[in-house]
Amino acid sequence: MLNYLLYRIGEFIALRLPLKLCYKIAVIISDVRAIFASQDRRQVEGNLKVIFPEKSKREIRQIRIRMFRNFAKYLADFFRFSIIDKEYIKQRIHLEDLDYFDQALKEGKGAITLTAHLGNWELGGIVIALLGYPFWAVALEHKDKRVNRFFNIQRESKGLKVIPFGRAVTRCLRALAGKMHGGFYCLPQAPQLSRFSSLSARRFQLIRTWCGSVWQS
Hints:
This protein is an alpha/beta fold. Helices cover 58% and strands 12% of the residues.
């Protein structure tokens, strides 16, 4: 319940303040939260030590701080999805290599896109959807149903269709078999999705592209 209320408050603020100010507030909130989130600090720093064994404790801490702050900025962007339209994209979003998408759809069979679960993949998804490309994305569900509904409403408000992870294999295979053909099916890459990717690759054309090629300038 608390998380849901905090998300709604964040959305209310983000929709009423300039983006740069939202980012500044997000950074402050992130730093304050980090003071009390000792378990999150330990887990993230533990993971970073595995990735960067050569770095000092101070360097690991600085990376962790930037990660927390970037996630807070991601939420600020996420809360503002309702104001994104084609004009917003034209003014604020930098696009590259869209011709790969056009090439992938020429055969009319749809395509699978893979993206690292890094940065604001949802922003890439809704931008692609707003540009007229049919787009489905596999996403993990939140434990709190209200939070899950809130996130999916944000994602789907601009045409990005969400496939719950628990039903991803069945629904994606059915979609690619022809019932929802002609669009993109996005897999934010995580270890849990590797089995799905290997099963699908034999049967369908795999287009290697990145939703991360779309970012906010």
